[in-house]
Design a protein that fits this description.
The chain is α+β, with helices and mostly antiparallel strands and about 230 residues long. About 20% of the residues lie in helices and about 40% in strands. It contains 5 helices and 13 strands.
């Protein structure tokens, strides 16, 4: 079963952005966006300030989402009443990354976990390797997924292999401040016991990032040799 779940996570190429968004509700307890199958876009926010409703249309070309807002009512129309575009990449069967323009819109920048016709924003953990053997990278991905069971706070995916050398480390995106740093520390704790990974140092990245945490599996990493089977 574990192998099946991992295959689903890695099969990003099997689903287009339109397939992911059509009919989906994206949000949390305070706000949500609905991308209806007929092209209608609905967004709503409920909080102490009141209720905000926005209506419009949505369309997709490649990985570019275009939302045109035609009406808005309520206290948050400065944000909800703005039309926007976003580059949305399906990075895993249950994970997407979002980069909107302008930045202050309901579909905010970052990583999302998608399941059961809906998506919610989570800590995005990207696992990156260059020359590390696939079984070692797979072990890291599986461990991070297993540790997230019950917490339900992260979306984990295996990125395409880097074209340049990778050193074992855990980087975090400074976009959201302390939250990503704490998530990087949690990732290090979740990987405890995988001594063959080596020392996992953490630090902020200076590169553009839509993930929150990047676990880098270094080129020299190797899984330990399996114990010999007992003689019969």
């Amino acid at each position: 079963m574990k192998a099946t779940l991992l295959f689903l996570l890695l099969s990003a190429g099997n689903q287009s952005l339109r397939d992911r968004l059509e009919g989906a509700e994206i949000g949390d307890r305070e706000q949500a966006m609905t991308f209806a199958t007929d092209g209608r876009y609905l967004a709503e926010r409920k909080d102490a300030a009141g209720v905000t409703h926005a209506r419009g249309t949505w369309k997709v070309a490649g990985n570019r989402l275009t939302v045109t807002v035609k009406s808005c009512s309520g206290p948050h129309c400065k944000v909800f009443g703005t039309s926007y575009q976003a580059i949305v990449d399906v990075v895993g069967d249950r994970a997407i990354t979002v980069d909107p323009t302008p930045g202050d819109v309901p579909f905010s920048r970052g990583s999302y976990y998608c399941h059961h016709q809906g998506c919610e924003k989570r800590i995005g953990i990207q696992v990156l390797a260059h020359d590390a053997p696939a079984p070692a990278v797979r072990e890291v991905v599986e461990r991070l997924i297993e540790r997230n069971v019950g917490r339900n706070t992260s979306a984990v995916w295996w990125a395409p292999r880097s074209e340049s050398a990778v050193v074992t480390a855990v980087a975090y995106c400074p976009r959201d401040g302390e939250g990503a740093r704490r998530a990087a520390e949690q990732a290090v704790a979740d990987l405890a016991g995988l001594d063959w990974l080596g020392t996992l140092s953490t630090g902020p990245t200076s590169a553009p990032c839509l993930w929150d945490v990047q676990v880098q599996v270094g080129d020299g990493v190797k899984l330990p040799e399996p114990a010999p089977r007992p003689a019969r």
